[in-house]
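Open question from group meeting: does this chain pack into something compact, or does most of it stay loose? Before anyone orders reagents, we agreed to write out a predicted structure and look at it together. Recording both the input and the output here so the notebook holds the full record.
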Amino acid sequence: MEQKLDEWFCRFKVTSSQPHERPAGGRLDPFRGCSLFTQDTKAAVDKCKEKTKHLSDPFPIEKMYDMILPNPNNTH
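Structure tokens returned:
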């Protein structure tokens, strides 16, 4: 989840403090000509990344999928 948050942030940010490591992939708002992120966005993403450590799957893996058996008429 942390990696996805990092990828999302890098995909939509307009400027980067370290362009050689994680280049920015975002664009300016075409109507207003400004970035869609504010200065607080990076701090909010960092707080979200701290909280991802407490996430867990809602069910055991056995309850998260249905086993579909092969058709008994199948020849192979």
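Observations to bring back to the group:
The chain has a mean pLDDT of 81.
Residues 1 and 56 are 11 Å apart (CA to CA).
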